[in-house]
Amino acid sequence: xxxxxxxGDLPARFGPGIPNxxxxxxxxxxxxxxxxxxxxxxxxxxxxxxxxxxICRSEQVADPGDFHVWEGHGESIVISRKQDGSLSGFHNVCxxxxxRIVAESGTDARRFTCKWHNWAYNQDGxxxxxxxxxxxxxxVLKDLCSPGVDVDEWGGWVWAVLAGPGVAGPLSDWIAxxxxxxxxxxxxxxxxxxxxxxxxxxVNWKVVIDAFSEYYHAQALHGMGGQDAxxxxxxxxxVFGRNGMYVVPFLGVLEELQQTLDHTALAIxxxxxxxxxxxxxxxxxxxMFRAVPLSVDRTRFEAWELRYExxxxxxxxxxxxxxxIYKSVIQQDVDEWKDVxxxxxxxxxxxxxxxxxxxxxxxxxxxxxxxxxxxSGLGLEPASVSAxxxxx
Length: 392
Known about the structure:
Low-confidence stretches: 384-392
Distance between the termini: 55 Å
Mean pLDDT: 95
Largest sheet: 7 strands, antiparallel
Radius of gyration: 22 Å
Helix content: 25-40%
Number of helices: 13
């Protein structure tokens, strides 16, 4: 029998007393947020490297010796499964003369060797082998390591902080508890990766995150109309910590959803996982959308399809059917980014204008700005702001 997620004891995200939107309001955003090279360099160091980011599925490094090479925003790291079942990670940079140590993911590794001069590294990134070691300054070689990264697992995903251990705090604290608990109902750790589709697009990484943080575009770009469009007006949005969430009822279930309040079973549940991922969770399957920044105006966009393990033919055929539809819908988003890219340097492109239903986007950019200024990105929700004002 296929697992079927339900809300259970989770808080209601839809129905009587639940506002459709938080009191964030409309906003504007300067276009240079997406095209300023200097800002992008600051984002790499102060946001991307200092945040927990999804790297791969745990199943991709399931056994001891399995390792995964990840590259993005100028960085390259190696994540490997150790003999005791734990994970380790380090920057994939030979400390001898700056070459990439290993080029591709693989299996059965107990150490990694740079092919240029055969410098060897263990799974923690420590230098364990140097040909002609006696020719080097022994003080420099003592305890030499490629810098480590923080690694953890949650929801069947491997996560990492590239700036190093302790920089971002525990992963369990990074994701807002409201979002973490809501997503846990879908048990992504019990899902299997079916397909991963990639595109390289000529837009800033935040354009990609924005695109999957609102439902406003569905009617125009994806042709949503009729009752579906009417029901979507009942969608709810909210922000928690650094994260955002919105809930869109499935077609034809609005009345049932309003009665049962079971958004987990009867709605598309969209969770923004700051900074670079958006989870699209549903009863039958889940998609993870991830933006991997490559430069200020170049992004690798990834769409991951996850489904529950099952040999039920009806379930598998139904999920296959919906995933093919989803891929065509995602392609529409990717194609639209070509129009964004075509005018990204235009003198007439000066700002983005957000409505109040694009509140998750507004919040996302406020978190980015706060982290760029040296903050944690926390305490920016409307409720927190109100609480501070009342305290004053």
